[in-house]
Amino acid sequence: MDHSRPTILLVEDNRDMRNYLTRLLWGDYEVVSVCDGQEALERIHTVRPHLILSDIMMPRIDGNELLTRLRSNQDFQSTPFIFLSARAGQEAEIDGLLTGADDYLVKPFSGRELLARVKKILGLVAMRCAANEYESRFQHLAHHPEIMSWITDADGDCVFLSQTWYDFSGQTEASGLGEGWLSAIHPHDRPSIQQAFCEANRKRQSFRLEYRLWGADGEYHYVLDSASPRFASDGRYLGYVGLVLDLSYQKDVEVQHRESEERFRTLANTISQFAWMADSTGWIFWYNARWYDYTGTTLKDMEGWGWRKVHHPDHVDRVMEKIRRCFQSGHIWEDTFPLKGKDGEYRWFLSRAVPIRNQHGEVVRWIGTNTDITELKTTQEQLQHLTSKLETRIAKRTEELRHNHSRLQALVGELILTEQRERRRIAEELHDFLAQLLVAGRMRVNRLEQTVGAEEHMLPALQEIDRILDQSLGYTRSLVAQLVPSVLYQFGLLKALRWLAEDMKQYGLTVEVKMERDHLTLTENEAVLVFQSIRELMMNVVKHAGVDRAYLSVNFSSSDEVCIEISDRGVGFNPHLIHKPSHASNQFGLFSIRERMSLLGGRMVIVSSPGSGTRIRLSVSLSEQEQPNAALSFTDHAPLIAEGAGQTSSLQMSSGYRVLLVDDHAVVRQGLRSLLDAWSDVEVVGEAGDGIEAIRLTDSLQPDVVVMDINMPNMNGIEATRQIRQHNPNIHVIGLSVRQDKETEQAMREAGAAAYLSKESAGQELYRMIATIVRMHKNFS
To answer: What is the per-residue pLDDT across 562-577, written as a single tens digit (0 to 9) for each?
Structure first.
């Protein structure tokens, strides 16, 4: 950010307007834009704007509330504030100004008008700051605790005396203004001072007068009174402004200085350090007693630059160069070097010299000290050695920790993926075996219901068994969906999210979905991890938010990143609490989701506070190349043809309904065959165990109807249906599946299926559906 330009905080919830205003202002100002008053309050302490442009109608905290809070904050009471509003009319503008705004601009407005208003407000603020600065300087000078100030008019009458004058002299405004201040002057000095003042006032000249002034302590003090004439801008003489300085204080200071210098010399000769003084050129003219005790020299030996005699020859040139440079520049000098004692041994010293300056800032002398640091230097060398060893050990341990962290991260990722694989395996087991067995069992029960004949007393028992099988099948299907929704593997993440939104209605939660696209490129593992994370977040809304509505949006922040946001307007929470041990158990799900996002190279951002709802954003990088989600894998079964249902015999049949059964589970095919065998006008001409075999048999057997399972190995029922209908448009396909979801049915119909039927209702509906489809086709033909 360029701090040389004024900073403007732009508060606007409309993105297009915010971008337009930013471009408009950017040429002359630094612009920081936020979307509402809440975000403005969060960032204003770091931005410290020179001016605030704010819309009025905004979510969370609107413009009026934002201005009210800023004006109650001492740091931002004077920050200029301009309202931007679509509310036209004088009343709306007055309301905005009464709230505390500096200006009010009605939308739509021209860019030139906005820039002119901004420039005007910032100019007024600059002028106001300058005036405040001038006033502050005058007040500081006028009431300086060590200076008395006064002002007269053109006639010489005193019109202002500072409080320090009243405190010093004991006078009041009544006794001091006008010519009353003269009464505080010593009677012997008063006539000459009054004459000199009147003469200077007549000539309008500056003057400096010294006299004795009565003090409130009951004694006279010598003071120095200096004054200068003041003139108006048109040249008119306005009078004097003067300053009075108590000279007795200065004299006391001089006495104290002499005493202090004497104390310094006494102290300097008793301290453990060496001390010395030099003139402005660096010529040393005094050492303390400790210097002579250590070196065994005299002032005659050491004065000037004689101290070089006790310096180590390996260091003296370096020391000389640095100290001369500091003496010439007036900078503080500091160095370390060895000095030779009278016993001939060298010891290390830390030396430092500071300049003493006069009132003009000129160096008048130097004061220096030398402190013995031999033991300290030895200790430092030992510490450096130990520090080096410690740093080596720390670096080694850090590398070990980094390696262990990487292994732990990989282990966590493998555990997460293992969990998903196990969920998928269990779902496959439920679908491939339990669900299919329940379907086959129900088909057999339906077949028995059709053949009980005279033993009608068995019908209620069979109906009860059918009801139990139906409930078991429904429960199994629900378990499969909860473990791994088939729509996720068949149609990808986006349709799975729409399915999830519908599924959440069973928990009393309505989810509004907004998606920028209808296609998303993610690998299968990525799609599963993201889907499971979003489902857990939806369940958190059900359990903790206290609302019956949530919002799901899918946006693309760039060409290679997708952002999925789940939000609600519920009770909210403090996101920082999830890092505290006492809350970790309650928020473990969020930790798990964050770990999954990290595993995917993405991130999770939580925005929430008590009473303000919750927004959780998951950002994931998109795959470089599309890798379609594969269908759930099932146990392979070889394609079969029914005994006695070869091509020649099948083609010879000219009446009834010729049916090809396609399902990767033999027990289901047997159940379907037993149902259809009950009808004399139906002939099952063949069976296939996958989509590829179904296409081959359809071309060779030319059945009237193909009863097609959806989920099969090698090629699923959707793709097989599409190819069959392309090559044989007169052959009809009825989709058949354990699952009951709209996405699968829609995909099957788009592939060309004439109907879609769940396996659990096949016993009652399959024959009727076959007959209806074939008859409609024949009638139409």
So the answer is: 899 999 999 998 887 7
